[in-house]
Design brief:
about 550 residues, mainly beta, Immunoglobulin-like, Copper Amine Oxidase, Chain A, domain 1, 3 domains
């Protein structure tokens, strides 16, 4: 901790134990700023609005329901964009209320950060019906997901609300047909069912300044909510969504004053494709590497994006550039060498790379039944010397330079902190005999019980081996085989991956493990003493 500028945690690991905080957590808090870098761990694609939206009235996937553990050729998540936002609220509330301890004079946490900001094929974690990991607030081409706007409202320093979803639901009540899944296996049964469009819940996200939200449809109030769930989530159940026109949410403060609103209109039929080019602040450089992208929107006669468009859009390019294509989630026929994308919720984005020759570059988008749309970008000459080198640096958006200068994170006064009290020692017993971990060594409290591995394993009488080169520990007992590595949060139990809160580390030459996870995984019965200072293992 003393060597750090700040301390990051993932889901509160190493700092908290349930709703309480470890001794290490308290000391860390008073020495450095603690920043939560992952208070939410769910996934959802941008393209699926909710369970009441065409084309499927469901998030169609292959779902295991296996506690979030991804299996080969199967998905572990089954969240629409609407579900995703609700989970965001739950995760952020847990951080905001219990770890940040809002309004507390001595909060444990100083800030929060989004560890996974964009959807990405991180570590090859594409999954069966999806092409990426989908934890982000933006998709892989950085188009904002609904969760971006929801989190913006939640964290807003001024009153703000966000009305989740769209208002282009079918007006035929018989249109809402979806495939039924078995509640136990989460697999499709082949049967069909009908959702009730007269009885949908509408969700509104409000910042902490909001005390009451009113929902209106076509100017008529359909109700108020002054009892938000988890501070930020306002629910309006029993709404008939087959009422074209507009839906609006109005937020009121504690004095009853309207301080924020969000309105969503029903969008008309698609009439055209709109292309908007984006280059660096100095334009597109003809250096053979510079990238431009083109925002693609499918709009109605008033220029509004049609939220339910998922059709294919083809592209042609002329001029000194290479068309790089775009991205679609859940589409298997889309590669890097194709000249088309599918709209997702009426939008997408495609990219091109400039050649070393300057000149006009024209991109044309086409779809049967719509007029072609074209946009032209003029790449600029890029100076190089006789050796082919240049003094010009790659472009950076000017907003970065205009941002406020960084300031040191304020830290609390270190008035009641002692370096001598850095951990809560835990006594470990095997069949009522205390484990001797050796001179100046002990087990102690992290999220669970953490301590030296070998003295405990010897006391248990289990077979184990530590491979120095791979830094891999293998333990065998009663038909169970446990494998774990230093600095790795995976714990393999009979070949099946699981997760440990505090991964193995070598501290002062001694291997430490999370005892309270490894020992039960071997099949031993364990329990805590009454004062939570003793940990008992029964052979």
């Amino acid at each position: 901790v003393d060597q750090s500028e700040w301390v990051g945690t993932m889901l509160g690991r190493r700092v908290r134990d349930g709703y309480r905080y470890t001794e290490n957590g308290k000391i860390t808090r008073d020495k450095r700023a603690i920043i939560e870098t992952e208070y939410h761990r769910e996934e959802s694609p941008r393209r699926v609005w909710d369970d009441y939206s065409p084309p499927d009235f469901d998030y169609v996937n292959v779902f295991t329901g296996a506690n979030g553990v991804k299996e080969n050729h199967k998905d572990a998540w089954d969240l629409t964009a609407e579900d995703f936002i609700r989970h965001h609220v739950y995760g952020y509330y847990e951080f905001y209320s219990r770890r940040m301890q809002a309004n507390s004079p001595k909060p444990y946490y100083s800030a929060a950060a989004m560890m996974i900001w964009s959807d990405s094929n991180q570590h090859g974690r594409l999954q069966a019906t999806e092409n990426c990991r989908m934890s982000g607030r933006v998709d892989p081409v950085r188009i904002k997901k609904q969760s971006f706007y929801a989190m913006k409202a939640i964290q807003s320093p001024v009153p703000e609300i966000y009305l989740v979803g769209h208002w282009n639901y079918p007006t035929d009540p018989n249109a809402y047909v979806y495939g039924v899944k078995d509640p136990e296996t989460h697999q499709y049964t082949g049967e069909k069912a009908l959702r009730d469009p007269y009885n949908k819940t509408i969700y509104v996200i409000g910042s902490e300044h909001i005390r009451t939200v009113e929902l209106l449809i076509n100017g008529k109030s359909v109700g108020y909510n002054d009892q938000p769930e988890k501070v930020f989530l306002y629910k309006f159940p029993g709404i008939n969504i087959m009422q074209p026109g507009y839906i609006e949410a109005v937020g009121y403060d504690a004095q009853g004053k309207a301080v924020a609103s969000h309105k969503i209109e029903t969008v008309g039929e698609v009439t055209e494709i709109r292309l908007t080019p984006v280059t660096g602040p100095e334009g597109l450089r003809a250096d053979g590497a510079d990238i431009a992208f083109i925002d693609v929107e499918v709009v109605d006669a008033q220029g509004r994006v049609y939220p339910l468009d998922y059709e294919r859009i083809d592209f042609e390019i002329t001029g000194p550039a290479t068309f790089l294509g775009g991205y679609n989630s859940g589409i298997k026929d889309l590669g890097h060498d194709v000249d088309y994308v599918y709209a997702e919720c009426g939008t997408n984005r495609v990219f091109l790379r400039a050649a070393r020759e300057a000149g006009p570059i024209t991109v044309t988008a086409t779809r049967p039944g719509l007029p072609p749309a074209s946009v032209t970008i003029y790449s600029k000459p890029f100076p190089v010397d006789a050796s082919g080198l240049t003094r010009l640096m790659p472009q950076v958006y000017s907003e970065i330079y205009q941002a406020p200068k960084r300031v040191p994170c304020p830290l609390p006064e270190l008035t009641d902190v002692s370096d001598l009290i850095v951990k809560q020692t835990i006594r470990v017993f095997v069949d009522d005999q205390e484990v001797d971990f050796g001179k100046d060594l002990s087990a102690y409290r992290m999220v669970g019980v953490y301590g030296p591995a070998f003295p405990l394993l010897d006391k248990l009488g289990v077979e184990y081996h530590f491979a120095e080169r791979e830094q891999k520990l293998t333990v065998k007992h009663g038909g169970n085989v446990i494998e774990t590595r230093v600095a790795d949060s995976d714990l393999y139990i009979n070949g099946v991956p699981g997760t440990i809160n505090d991964w193995p580390e070598i501290i002062n030459g001694v291997l430490h493990i999370e005892i309270s996870t490894v020992v039960p995984a071997l099949g031993f019965k364990t329990y805590w003493g009454e004062n939570k200072r003793e940990y008992y293992i029964v052979r």
